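Onboarding guide, step 5: your first structure request.
Type a short instruction followed by the sequence, for example:

Predict the 3D structure of this protein.
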Amino acid sequence: MRKIVLSAFAASLMAGTALAADLPVRGPAPAPMPAPVFVAMNWTGFYVGIHAGYGWATDKWVAGPQASLFTDRVAGAAFSYDQKGWLGGAQLGYNWQFNSFVVGLEGSASYSDVKDSALSVFGAADDVFSTKYRTIVSGAVRGGFTFGSALIYGKIGYAGVDIKRSTVDAVPFNVGVNATSNWHTGMLLGAGVEYAFTRNWSAALEYNYYNLNTKSVTYASLDNDRFDPKLQTVTLRLNYRFGGYSSPVVARY
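The system replies with structure tokens like these:
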């Protein structure tokens, strides 16, 4: 009986050893995963870019005290009409970012084809008035708030616009042409939203209102006019920024 028990114990011991040999060997524990690294956008730095868009305006003409038969108007007679067209140009600037607040300086210049003509309502209604906004420049302060890759901003500053005007009378007896080019200055008010779609490239949609000063002009014919223009534009802008991301930030959980 004793031999039988010992034989059974030895057999079970050998079977357990063989089963342990067939079990897979556990490797070393995996290394801990590193915490994700997020890179914060930083708007600080210089940028240059181009823009293109659409403009619309109203030009008001008021006949001066020396109004003559050339334009069939008496002193104080007012006439206004609308202009519209495309524009395009370039801009450059510098931004400073303080936490979520961004402030900057920007200058821009545009070539404009905002123009139109209208037939006079005075006298024989034979005079044609024409206005064209040719060059638009501005220098402004920008300020806004950033939400990561997006920036919402407003701007205010100086504006200057070169405007060409003419009056054509083609019906006798007072036939001829009056023409003048005037530089109007004033205030620029604008707003926009900009999105950085790569480290250095961003696109923006911007609206601007140009509140320009009035100007009086006396022609060679001794007629004189006072002009009161107002201009608005909407542009798409593409900027290249010399800057980009700030230092990496390691997320902690």
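Each response can be followed by summary notes, for example: The longest strand covers residues 37-63.
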